[in-house]
From TrEMBL:
<feature type="region of interest" description="Disordered">
    <location>
        <begin position="57"/>
        <end position="93"/>
    </location>
</feature>
<dbReference type="InterPro" id="IPR052955">
    <property type="entry name" value="UPF0703_membrane_permease"/>
</dbReference>
<keyword id="KW-1133">Transmembrane helix</keyword>
<keyword id="KW-0812">Transmembrane</keyword>
<dbReference type="Pfam" id="PF21537">
    <property type="entry name" value="DUF1980_C"/>
</dbReference>
<dbReference type="InterPro" id="IPR015402">
    <property type="entry name" value="DUF1980"/>
</dbReference>
<feature type="transmembrane region" description="Helical">
    <location>
        <begin position="98"/>
        <end position="123"/>
    </location>
</feature>
<feature type="transmembrane region" description="Helical">
    <location>
        <begin position="35"/>
        <end position="52"/>
    </location>
</feature>
<keyword id="KW-0472">Membrane</keyword>
<feature type="compositionally biased region" description="Basic and acidic residues">
    <location>
        <begin position="60"/>
        <end position="79"/>
    </location>
</feature>
<dbReference type="InterPro" id="IPR048447">
    <property type="entry name" value="DUF1980_C"/>
</dbReference>
<protein>
    <submittedName>
        <fullName>Repeat protein (TIGR03943 family)</fullName>
    </submittedName>
</protein>
<feature type="domain" description="DUF1980">
    <location>
        <begin position="164"/>
        <end position="257"/>
    </location>
</feature>
Length: 258
C-alpha cells in the first residue's frame, strides 16, 4: 500500500509541474516536457492500479482468515497450534515505514517548488563557458535601435568576432543580477543548461555605469560593449563588459535558462 501511494503522489507531482504549469522549466529544457508528462501519467496509473488491487485484497482477507484455521490441517499447522504458535500466513502486511521518506521531495514540490538556479549558484562558479559554445559565424547586426541579444551570443561576439560587430552598437541583455567583488560593477547573468539544472553554468557580463539592483533581480539592461584586452586575471577568467545606459526590472521569465 505504501509503495503504491508513493507512486501515485510522485506521478501527481510530475504532472503538476509539467502538464499544468511551467515549473518544470526550472529544472530541465523545454523539449523534455512530453517525456515528463508521459512519465507522470505512467506513475499515476501504476500507483492507482496498485491501490485498487491492495484495497480489494484487504476486503477479501477477513473471509480468508476466518476459514484459514479450518483448512490448515497439515502436520506443520497442527504442530504449530499445539505449541501455541499461530500458523503463518505466508505474506507480509504493508511495507517498510522508511518508504514514506520518499514522499518528502514530493511534498516539497507540492508545497514549495524549488526555484531556478540564481545568484547563489552563479557567484560560486568562475568557470567561463566552453569555447565550443561560442558562435563560429556572426551575422551583421541590423537596425538602429538596441539589439535584443542573448547573453551567450554577446559573449561569443565579444570573444571571437574578428569584425568587432559589437563596437558602438547598443544591445539589450536580459538576466538576473549577481554581485561582483570588484567595486563599480555587477553581473547580468543567465544560466545555460545542456540537459538539466545539474549541468548548468553561468553566462556573465559585467555591467558598469549603473547602480546594482538587489541580487537575483531580473532586469533588462541596455548599453554598449566596452572593448578590452582579454589578458589573464588572477582567477583566469575575463568577463565581457557592458557600459550600461538604461535598466528596467522585469518579472522572472517562464524559461529562466538559455
Amino acid at each position: 500500500m505504501t509503495q503504491n501511494l508513493v507512486l501515485t503522489l510522485l506521478g501527481c507531482a510530475v504532472l503538476r509541474i509539467s502538464a499544468f504549469s511551467t515549473t518544470y522549466l526550472n529544472y530541465v529544457k523545454p523539449g523534455f516536457r512530453p517525456f515528463l508528462i508521459g512519465a507522470g501519467a505512467v506513475l499515476l496509473v501504476l500507483g492507482l492500479t496498485g491501490l485498487v488491487q491492495a484495497s480489494r485484497s484487504r476486503k477479501s482477507s477477513p473471509e480468508a482468515h476466518a476459514h484459514g484455521g479450518a483448512r490448515d490441517r497439515s502436520p506443520d499447522g497442527a504442530r504449530s497450534r499445539a505449541q501455541g504458535h499461530p500458523p503463518e500466513h505466508g505474506h507480509a502486511h504493508g511495507g517498510p515505514r522508511v518508504a514514506w521518506l520518499m514522499c518528502l521531495p514530493v511534498f516539497a514540490i507540492f508545497l514549495v517548488a524549488p526555484p531556478a538556479l540564481g545568484s547563489f549558484a552563479a557567484a560560486r562558479s568562475e568557470t567561463p563557458p566552453p569555447r565550443d559554445q561560442a558562435l563560429s559565424a556572426f551575422t551583421p547586426l541590423r537596425g538602429d535601435g538596441p539589439v535584443d541579444m542573448p547573453i551567450g551570443e554577446f559573449i561569443g561576439r565579444a570573444w571571437d568576432d574578428d569584425s568587432k560587430s559589437l563596437t558602438g552598437r547598443a544591445v539589450k541583455l536580459t538576466g538576473f543580477v549577481v554581485p561582483s567583488k570588484k567595486k563599480g560593477q555587477w553581473y547580468v547573468t543567465r544560466m545555460q543548461i545542456a540537459c538539466c539544472a545539474a549541468d548548468a553554468f553561468p553566462l556573465k557580463v559585467a555591467v558598469r555605469g549603473i547602480q546594482s539592483p538587489p541580487p537575483d533581480t531580473w532586469v533588462e539592461v541596455t548599453g554598449t560593449w566596452i572593448p578590452q584586452t582579454f589578458g589573464t586575471m588572477p582567477n583566469g577568467v575575463v568577463y565581457p563588459q557592458l557600459s550600461g545606459t538604461d535598466l528596467m526590472r522585469i518579472d522572472t521569465p517562464d524559461e529562466p535558462y538559455e
